[in-house]
Structure formats: C-alpha cells, structure tokens
Amino acid sequence: MRVLGIDPGTITTGWGVVEKGASGRLIYVSDGEIKTPERASLSEKLLVISSGLKEAIRRTAPTACAVESVFFARNARSAVILGHARGVSLLSAAELGLPVYEYSPATVKQTVSSYGRADKAQVGKMISLLLKRGDFTGPDATDALAVAICHIHHGAAARLNVIGNQWLARQKAGLPK
What percent of the chain has pLDDT over 90? Predict the structure, then answer.
C-alpha cells in the first residue's frame, strides 16, 4: 500500500507519500510543499494546488489518498477558504482515480504520537522516528506524512466503512447488492 497524505492549505499545501512494506515497515517515498503566490487570487492559488498535487500523484503513483478533515476554526472566513483547498485536494486525487479517505487532526495526532493534542514539533519528531529520517521539506509536508501514516494504520477499517456505506446506499435505493 502506497499512500499520499495531504495537509491542505491555501498558502502552503503539504503532501507526503509513505509505503507499507511487506514486513509492515513504513517506507518513506517522497514529500513536498506546494506554496502558492502571495498576491494570487483564490482561484489562481487553487489551480497551483491542483497542478502540484496531480504532478506529485503522477510522479509517486500512490494507491490511496488521505486528507485531513475539516476542523472547527475560530475564524469562519479562514475555515471556508481552507475548505476550498481541501475540495481541490479531494478533487485532484479523485480525478486521477485514487480512493480518498479523511481523518480528523486529532485522529492523525493520536495515531502518530499517542496524543490527540500533540503540537507540530511533537508530530514532526515522531514522523522522523517512524520513517527513520529527519530531512523533510517542511512542517506542512511532515503533517502530510502523518496523515499518510494514519491511513496506513486505519486503512482497513476505513475501506470497510466505505464498502459498508456503499452497500447501505444500494439497499436503500433498491439496487442489487
């Protein structure tokens, strides 16, 4: 299993790819940060994010994508703008045929650091330990690697949930199972 993790943002979108080896060991593949032009319009920033993610997907060939889900922000405007970056991230992966899974920030932090309120520095240290590497592109890329690792650990349950939801939807619609 090779997973693309995405930490969406309109200023910087982090991405990271981690593979689960045959022995269950985590293998670092690649990471990066897509930085948008400061004075660009929102639509221009979203285009930069989409293009960067599609390039990363084509280059690293992941089999699944995991994205941090929406969290509640104090500033509604910031939350809406972040929602645009998340939407472009979800769409970019789906357009290239990847199944997309979402995890809350607390679940990601709990999975990689055993503490759901870990700060960026704690998450970064754990990612370095888990991947036996310390030279990542930046903190947003490190967070994206954490999302990928989270999916590797929770992926089987997430896939069963998707399959179960599809089965229920077909049943409710009166379609064959």
Answer: 70
70 pLDDT above the threshold of 90: no
What is the domain class of 2-172 according to CATH? Answer: alpha beta
CB 101 within 8 A of CB 66: yes
What does 105-159 look like in DSSP terms, one character per residue?
HHHHHHHHHS-TT--HHHHHHHHHHHHT----S-HHHHHHHHHHHHHHHHHHHHH
Q: Which residue has the tokens 């954490």?
A: 146
pTM for this entry: 0.85
What angle in degrees, to the nearest 10, is found between the helix axes of 105-113 and 120-131? 50
**Cβ pair 24, 152 in contact under 8 A:** no
Give yes or no for residue 164 having a pLDDT over 80.
Answer: no
What pLDDT does 69 receive? 86
Distance, in Å, from the CA atom of 26 to the CA atom of 125, rounded to the nearest integer, reads 15
pLDDT tens digits, one per residue of 103-112: 999 999 999 9
Nearest to 106, CA basis, from 64, 150, 142: 150
Mind telling me the catalytic residues?
A: 7, 68, 140
With H, G, I as helix, E, B as strand and everything else as coil, classify residue 93. Answer: helix
